[in-house]
Amino acid sequence: MNFNDFDIYKNLGEFYYDEPMKNHTSFNVGGPCKLLIKPKDEDSLIKILKEIKKNNYNYYVLGNCTNVIVRDNGFDGIIIKLKNNLNDLKLVSDTDIYAGAGVSLKKVSEFAMENSLTGLEFCHGIPGSLGGGVTMNAGAYDGEIKNVIKSVRLLDEDLNIIEVSCDGMNFSYRNSLVQEKNLIVLGATFSLSYGDKTEIREKYEEFDRRREEKQPLDLPSAGSTFKRPTGYFAGKLIDDSGLRGFTHNGAGISEKHCGFVVNKNNATASDVLETIEIVQKVVQDKFNVKLEREVKIIGE
Question: Among the options 42, 110, 144, 294, which is catalytic?
Answer without folding.
Answer: 294
